[in-house]
Design goal:
Strand content: 15-25%
Distance between the termini: 9 Å
CATH topology of the largest domain: Isopropylmalate Dehydrogenase
Number of helices: 11
CATH architecture of the largest domain: 3-Layer(aba) Sandwich
Number of strands: 12
Number of domains: 2
Shape: globular
Radius of gyration: 20 Å
Strand order of the largest sheet: 3-4-2-1-5-12-11-6-7-10-8-9
Structural class: alpha/beta
CATH class of the largest domain: Alpha Beta
Largest sheet: 12 strands, mixed
Length: about 325
């Protein structure tokens, strides 16, 4: 099987167009289709000294591996074609979202086997008057998916999030038994379907220091988390927890699980990014499509400088290829 991947170039002023050009220069075992303004990709390739032949993507043809130095482009025009690397322009926010819509629709129709997203800038989209909290939530809305789950992968380390882009003040109120059960069911199914694990073992962190210290440092573990885990264990899920977060990422603890569920964004992701920043992959579970992404932001200061590292996007493409092949088997 030769998977066909839709690759969105993300924020035009950031490093997304750079990374797409860099990867196309190397070629790919799958077929890459950039969803972007071809003039933007061409100008960024020229700035980086990359000789890149762009060809218009024609739907309906059989996919073929991407040769080094070539790239198919499904064209979307920028609202403001004068893009200054490193300088955000709210006029181009609708363009960024349109590329996501195109890629997601193509995945749902079967035209694409997966979508891979370069980083976008949440702030400038909101500055354009468009409420937006992130790729995960946006794609869930596009695909009518009630429970998306953000999972980041660095080598054998997999960390999922119960809550994603919330202020810390709001996290405790968002932790409910219903959410825990829904997220863990999606995580368990995703580990089976996307990673081929027959019986996934999941470590679940507590919310409070020392997992609440038997209720002395907070009672969410006793009232909410532990009862939800008991119900899920009775349904057949292999779960350990709630565990103190400060000892759950030791080598011995990680050897006993296939994934870790953190209660909030900055409880789990600093550990994962320390382990593999620049090579880690963000995958959204709970969607009817395959979506992977980078583990970093737009790096506006690196755009068009040649100093951006394409490692995370390359890893995201490799993982998307693996998942697409596994699901087609």
């Amino acid at each position: 099987m030769i998977p066909r991947l839709a690759v969105t170039a993300g924020e035009p002023a950031g490093i997304g167009p750079d990374l797409v050009a860099m990867l196309a220069a190397d070629g790919c075992a799958g077929e890459l289709v950039a969803i972007a303004d071809p003039a933007l990709i061409a100008s960024r390739a020229e700035a980086l000294g990359i000789h890149l032949q762009l060809r218009a993507y024609q739907p309906g043809q059989l996919p073929a591996p991407t040769p080094p130095g070539q790239l198919l482009v499904a064209a979307h025009a920028l609202a403001n074609p004068v893009v200054r690397p490193g300088r955000l322009d709210a006029a181009n926010a609708p363009y960024v979202l349109d590329t996501l819509r195109h890629a997601a629709a193509g995945c749902r129709s079967g035209e694409f086997d997966a979508m891979v997203t370069a980083p976008l800038h949440k702030g400038v989209i909101n500055d354009a008057g468009i409420p937006f909290s992130g790729h995960t939530e946006f794609l869930a809305g596009l695909t009518d998916s009630p429970q998306p789950v953000m999972l980041l992968v660095a080598g054998t380390l997999r960390v999922a999030l119960l809550t994603t882009h919330l202020p810390l003040r709001s996290v405790a109120d968002a932790i409910t038994g219903e959410r825990i059960e829904a997220v863990l069911k999606v995580l368990d199914a995703g580990l089976r379907e996307s990673f081929g694990l027959a019986a996934p073992r999941i470590a679940v962190l507590g919310l409070n220091p020392h997992a609440g210290e038997s209720g002395h440092l907070g009672d969410e573990e006793l009232r909410i988390i532990a009862p939800a885990l008991r119900r899920l264990r009775a349904a057949g899920l292999a779960l350990d927890g709630p565990l103190p977060a400060d000892s759950a990422f030791t080598t011995a603890a990680l050897a006993r699980c296939d994934a870790v569920l953190a209660m909030y964004h900055d409880q789990g992701l600093p550990v994962l990014k320390h382990a593999g920043f620049g090579q880690a992959v963000n995958i959204t579970l709970g969607l009817p499509i395959v979506r992977t992404s980078v583990d970093h932001g737009t790096a506006l200061d690196l755009a068009a400088t040649g100093r951006a590292d394409p490692g995370s996007l390359r890893s995201a493409i490799d993982l998307a290829l693996d998942i697409a092949r596994r699901r087609s088997a």
